[in-house]
Amino acid sequence: MNDSPIIALDFPAPDDALEFLRDIPGRLSVKIGMELYLQNGPSVVERIREAGHDIFLDLKLHDIPNTVGQAMKGLAQLGVGMVNVHAAGGREMMERALEGLEAGTPAGAERPALIAVTQLTSTGEDQMRLEQGIAGTLEQSVLRYARLAKDSGLDGVVCSVHEAAAIRSACGESFLKVTPGIRLAGGESQDQKRIATPLEARKSGSTHIVVGRAITKAADPAEAYGAVKRQWEEWNR
Ligand SMILES: O=C(O)c1cc(=O)[nH]c(=O)n1[C@@H]1O[C@H](COP(=O)(O)O)[C@@H](O)[C@H]1O
């Protein structure tokens, strides 16, 4: 997928998503997540692809290695550019996910990029320690998961902007750092704990940003998308 801002299409129905997209000109990078996919199935992917957009299919798979591998075989046939798993599923699960994707990608087509969620951007450090029982700092946990994902052959991770620079040092420039939790300056954090602006994301080494409500719930979504894109692109790495 190219590096334009990825709009999170967190809508219940395909018509809502497609109507929203009609107001923003051009070929866009979009994310279809659980809300849209689980209520509508694979046909929603087809409809949005037919409208000409590049898709990150965000289903955050996390199950035993065989189940995830088989599921990825199927997802590889949907023509999307990126898919993901939870790094907490472990090395074998991630390796099997990659094998499934490779086996399922139609001949001549490009395999979707496979990335792993480290710690969700809605997770804070206290919550991680108390609820997940993980000691140390949040950044240490994210870095451990990022290294594990890289060693398992994955293309990158989902992390917050706050860990992107450390992951760049540990895993390299080309390892994808896909960062949600993006807000324009002064925007409400809502359920996110680790937020940042598009400009901060760019400066920190994010390779992609995922932006939902800052665009989809804006009074003028096309203007909000333009503002995000300008900030994201104006600073040269
Ligand atoms: O994998 C993701 O896309 C994801 C991972 C993560 O750690 N945090 C996170 O917010 N996301 C997704 O990114 C989007 C963020 O939405 P907003 O907070 O509205 O911008 C949602 O669709 C989340 O499902």
Automatic annotation (TrEMBL):
One term of GO molecular function: orotidine-5'-phosphate decarboxylase activity
Where are the active-site residues found?
A: 60
Q: Give its E.C. classification number.
A: 4.1.1.23
Residues annotated to bind substrate: 10, 31, 58-67, 121, 183, 192, 212-213
Pathway where this protein functions: Pyrimidine metabolism; UMP biosynthesis via de novo pathway; UMP from orotate: step 2/2
Residues in Orotidine 5'-phosphate decarboxylase domain copies: 4-228
What reaction gets catalysed by this protein?
orotidine 5'-phosphate + H(+) = UMP + CO2
UniProt cross-references to SUPFAM superfamilies, sorted A to Z: Ribulose-phoshate binding barrel (SSF51366)
Extract the NCBIfam families matched here. PRK00230.1, pyrF
* Subunit composition and interactions: Homodimer.
The free-text function statement in the UniProt record for this protein reads:
Catalyzes the decarboxylation of orotidine 5'-monophosphate (OMP) to uridine 5'-monophosphate (UMP).
Give the family per the record: Belongs to the OMP decarboxylase family. Type 1 subfamily.
Q: What is this protein called?
A: Orotidine 5'-phosphate decarboxylase
- Native species: Bhargavaea ullalensis
Q: Which gene encodes it?
A: pyrF
